[in-house]
Write a structure and sequence with these properties.
alpha+beta, 2 domains, seven-stranded mixed beta sheet, two-stranded antiparallel ribbon, rod-shaped, binds 3,4-dihydroxyphenylalanine
């Protein structure tokens, strides 16, 4: 090869490398020029057969070409790799200004958060939560509460009874009221005491305003010198805290077998402010709970001496409290499991 041909090889190689656009082509070019039997490699091999004088000058020239080609290959490689990375970065950018994908978030059922609200309001008044069984004895649900066997109140409750088990002489039932916790609480605790019980109760009726399962909250206080005034004060504070506004209350004489005297408690209609509307049936008042001073027979069944201690108790339906506070107008919505109901009336769970 002449010096001239070497120059041509050099310029052609460099311009070929300059025009390359992919790493694959670049590798091919490297192999063609500098690989085991590449053009430049072959030239270097041929130096051995030359006379020393020519070898010196030609060898030097070939080596220069090799160094230049090598560095051109390296520069090109760096450039191509950088371009490839830039292209990747350009297509894979994350647009942080895009709105995030909305994920449906579960909500708490209104009854569940009302249970929490009621429990908190009564706890602030010193009523400790207790639990009673949903399947209980006739004694705890009725007899101990001064409702004798032939008492019409037993029929009022439309009770679900279980068949007595072998050897059992007392029937069991699904409790019809949370009042079933009263006697057990009195038997298990020593007065003074203030307890609350919230839970499911069952009655076998079902229509527009009744479901076979619903919820009640029960309050029971036993102390010395307890009077009706204490009961009224507790209810006033409880209802004001629960409804988160000033509510007026009105007590009407009533009858419950387990309290004497007994009262039904109304609140001034929170929808019309007492002027009369559809919800309060134009009376200005809405009935919310039953209450009274614990009957001495009930105290006796709980092992409490009525000459030393007095008690007051109250009970009310949670569905009703919930409907009034949150403007839900159909009882059945609570149990229909419609997602739309939960989306509207449910409460987002507290974030941790
Ligand atoms: N247990 C009654 C009911 O289911 C409600 C009630 C009334 C509970 C008066 C009480 C009370 O503790 O004193 O209708």
């Amino acid at each position: 090869m002449t010096m001239q041909e070497l120059k041509t090889l050099q310029s052609e190689s460099l311009s070929h490398i300059g025009a390359i656009n992919s790493l694959k082509e670049l590798e091919d070019a490297r192999v063609t020029l500098l690989g085991k039997s590449g053009k430049i490699t072959e030239l270097l091999k041929s130096l051995g057969g030359m006379d020393p004088e020519t070898r010196k000058t030609f060898g030097q020239a070939v080596n220069d070409v090799k160094v230049q080609v090598q560095s051109a290959l390296e520069d090109k490689k760096t450039a191509l790799e950088r371009a490839e990375l830039d292209a990747k970065l350009a297509t894979e950018t994350v647009d942080v200004t895009l709105p995030a994908t909305a994920r449906p978030v579960g909500k708490m059922h209104p009854l569940s958060f009302v249970i929490e609200e009621v429990e908190k309001a009564l706890s602030e008044l010193g009523f400790d939560p207790v639990e009673g069984p949903e399947i209980d004895t006739e004694f705890n649900n009725f007899t101990a509460l001064n409702i004798p066997d032939d008492h019409p109140a037993r029929q009022d409750h439309d009770t679900f009874y279980f068949k007595p088990l072998k050897g059992e002489n007392e029937r069991r039932l699904l409790r019809t009221q949370t009042s079933n916790v009263q006697v057990r609480a009195m038997q298990n605790m020593t007065p003074p005491m203030r307890v609350q019980a919230i839970g499911r109760v069952f009655r076998c009726d079902s229509d527009l305003t009744h479901t076979p399962q619903f919820h009640q909250v029960e309050g029971l206080a036993i102390d010395k010198n307890l009077t009706f005034a204490h009961l009224k004060g507790v209810l006033q504070t409880f209802l004001t805290t629960y409804f988160e506004r000033k509510v007026e209350i009105r007590l009407r004489p009533s009858y419950f077998p387990f309290t004497e005297p007994s009262t039904e408690v109304d609140i001034g209609c929170i929808f019309c402010g007492g002027n009369g509307c559809r919800v309060c049936k134009h009376t200005g008042w809405i009935e919310v709970l039953g209450a009274g001073m614990v009957h001495r027979n009930v105290l006796a069944n709980g092992g409490i001496d009525h000459t030393q201690w007095q008690g007051f108790a109250f009970g009310c339906g949670l569905e009703r409290l919930t409907m009034l506070k949150y403007g839900i107008n159909d009882l059945r919505l609570f149990y229909d499991s419609h997602a739309a109901f939960l989306r509207h009336f449910g409460k987002p769970a507290a974030r941790i």
